[in-house]
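Hi! If you just cloned this repository, the fastest way to understand the data is to look at a raw example. We've pasted two of them here, unedited. The first protein comes first, obviously.
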Amino acid sequence: MSKVATFYQYYYKDIFNYVYNLLNDIDAAQEIVQETFTCLCENIDMDASIDQKKVKVWALEKAHYLSIKYLQKVDDVLLNSIKVTSNIWSREILEEKIQTKALREFLRSMLQEIKIEHQKAICLVDLQGLSYKESAYLLDITEEAFGSLLKRARQAFIRKILKEFNPDLLKLPLSLYEQRMLLTWFDILDYPNNIEKEISTKVQGFFNGFHQSFEDFRRETYPRNLNQYLLSLVQLNKSSIVADFGAGTGSLIKDVSPLVSEVFAIDHSIEMLKTVTNLQKNYGLSNVKTISADVSMDLSFMKGSVDVGFSCMLIHHIFNPLKAIKQMTKTLVAGGELVIADLTFTNKNWRFKESHDFWTGFKAEQLQKWLEEAELEIIKLSENDNYHFCFNDLKVKGKYVKVPLLIAHCRKK
């Protein structure tokens, strides 16, 4: 097999996809690809400047040049914008839906609205599957500079899509991970009007199906003696009324019930609350009352009734944590206390986001802003390195990732 035939076999698909996604014209793309390989055939043996290790890059450059010449003849508007289309993010986010014509048209229109250098970066890596090194060579920049460019390009593209659906989404301090989750969880062609409600429903459905194995997960993942640490932050007595927001299967409730007058177990999952009810019967916890409620919705029926509230590993499941914090605060008596325990923010891409984890943890400064906006006096707010949540690293079998506890202890003003 000749060199050119070998190159044709290996690179035809990539070159064709590249040209087609520039022109959106199958016949024109086929002609340009044929011309590209004809030029390659004529030059590969006589042009010493063509490094055989970079044939694919050379062919892409030639195909790009020929595409521009074609557009100069037939479509000035398309030439100016260099419309990029098709399966951006197909492997990671949009999956099989990317093949639909409506979605291709939608993505093309969104890509047109970001900077041309961002379009190029996304096209080269996410569309064509080129390496950072190949892409950097094509754009005549360093590999490090290209990595930075691609990160900005992806963020700009995702933000443009989210803004199209709901401009209010971008008022939340969403990292790139949360932005990508919104595109992973929902069909772009049928995006929900009420995202907050849809996320709440997804989380509720997940925990309704997870209640039987949650305690095993908790034992494997949560820090040892976490309940004791949380209880050590507050002063409880036999007249105290306590609320456990996001009670789950009742691990904290079992420890706190003997110490206080009454405990409200609040959870959005009916199945989780059934587990708490069984716990009541098995341990004789007569002072526990279960309440089915979404903590981010209206808790006015509990207004001013709680001395101490606990929220453990709850708010990273909630679309708008500030709303939830305000609702929990509403239930407290004047001078009542709220303890929030959750994940510290991590940018490690160590686990696949499913339909129950929306936020990748929180930075202390962001949680501080929310607490202050909820008119809570902060007694303690810190990342506690003595307590870690331990998750399986889904990329490396047998490896674990430790995420520090973020703890907040507050008082209602």
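Ok, and the second one:
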Amino acid sequence: MQQQNFQTQNQQVVFQQPPAVISTKDALYLTDMLSWNLLAMKKANFYAQQVQDQELIHAFNACGQMHQRHYTRILSHLNNQNQASFGSMQQ
């Protein structure tokens, strides 16, 4: 009997869809992710302007573009989540 209770306590609930609400902890982490990507994008742009070597300029620009894509993707996920939440509130 005790072993059966232990097994049910260790089973994790798997959600097919993410919850419609973002917790405060998740929101803070998303804010940090946006900040990290924005800072990395700005630094890559700065370094690309400081160097003379075309290969380095290309590498820094590619790095900055990658972080910009990540920043944009995170924002689009947040906007989609926000629109879905707002749409369900209107119905």
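That's it. A detail worth noticing about the second one: The longest helix spans residues 54-90.
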